[in-house]
Write a structure and sequence with these properties.
This protein has 538 residues and is of the alpha+beta class. The chain is built from 19 helices and 16 strands. A hairpin with a 7-residue loop joins β9 and β10. The model has no long low-confidence stretch (mean pLDDT 89).
Length: 538
Amino acid sequence: MKFQAIKGVRDILPPESALWNRFEQTAREVFATYGYGEIRMPIFEQTELFARSIGTETDVVSKEMYTFEDHDQVDLSRTRSSLLIWESSQPSFGDIYWFFKQVRTFQSAYQRLYEKDEVPRTPDNDSNRQNLFNLIDREAGRIERLARANSFRGRAKEMFLEQQIIEAELPELEKWAVEVIRGLHTVKLGNEITLRPEATASVCRAYIEHGMQTLPGNVKLYYMGPMFRRERPQKGRYRQFYQIGAEVLGQSDAPAIDAEVIEMLMVFFERAGLTQTRLAVNSIGCKDCRPKYVELLREKLREVKDKLGTDSQRRIETNPLRVLDSKSPDEQPIIETLPRISDHLCEACREHFAKLQGELKLRGIEYEINWRLVRGLDYYTRTTFEVTAAGLGSQNAVCGGGRYDGLVELIGGPPTKGIGFAIGTDRAILSIQESGEAAAIGGLDVFVAWMGAEAYPASVSLARKLRSEGLSVEIPPEEMKFKKALGLADKLHARYALIIGGDEVASGQFTLKNLATGEQQKLTEVNLIEFLMGSARG
């Protein structure tokens, strides 16, 4: 069998991984200058955290999450698994009785764990457990009666009972077994766990769990790492993808906070080499003015429902703001005629958005207003923003962010203001690669071409000194012919070849060759290190 990476995931290999490292390190350096600290969260959380924060009506929660049941009851799990796959097209009473005994074993074991609080005792699971047990108990008397009758000896009696069971009892018992199997699907042996599809909910959970609201000032956090969504893989989009994000949590929603978050983001992109970007901003109102706009939007969408696609038709009732995100070419002329939220903001939200624009101009940040830039969940409020980048086609967004003043409270925390963003690292890296900005990243600084046994000790010593200065150095473990050594240096994309032979060791003058230009120079050890360090910084 040939093992390969699963569809939708990938390996990140050198030299591309060097670009990833630099991108992430730049984020750490820039975010630190703004007072942010790194938070490292678990890769999975309770499913309910994401269901509550992202919303059960979203595609992420309803279709894309990787969810599994987390439990320690191995034997019980095996019993349930064997029952779930039980099937017999023409079951005998012996088949039904075996199934019944296994179900009874599961029922007894589950009840013991339930009484010890070792299985979830949520309202839903309590109800499902009781329904299943009632179903099992419903046919227990009949099955036990038939089992006793079937144990009688005597050919005539056996023939009579067999006929009675097959003709009268088995069809009903088979239907009962199917109902039990359905019931077994509903009871949980452990909590539902989900690989994180995003990280904001996890940050808010950690904020609540560790009482971070008691810390002085705003809490500024950043994170980076993999996320998981079951979606169709395409260019720059994977089922295991990576994000870098930052969040500010506290008691203020001052526009200056929003502007500084955006400023930090744009500074990071510039320093990371992502220079061909466009920033769009919008305001989506608050809990006072936004519901009125949403209802107005719903009414207007109902008037043109027949002209919309299936997804947009469904969203009219569940989440009309999502219709504004539609990429369908046929729907664009219709969307352009819809009411704009900027015309329906309350006075406080209009003032907040105006001040945000003033703060952005104060910081010299170029932006455009995109009235279709919305967030479909109730806890989002006021500021939203998005950054797009060149080289990615129609799916060109590399970062999305916004204010979410109701999220912490929604998942059980104190009233808290919040704003943040998440960068799609995969897409950002791809944009850098497409722009050609990544050409000089990675590769080798120095290849040591040594010749002769007397040159080897000096070569090893010099390689160690260069590495201690942070330079990447390759030294062959065995002597190579000069031409072959330079050929290997070129294939490794080394910037310089350091040539060391007996003459160089005797004179203390080492030959350094620039492999791009072919220029050579003789340098002492001290001058060599100074030159290479200066070249690396340049």
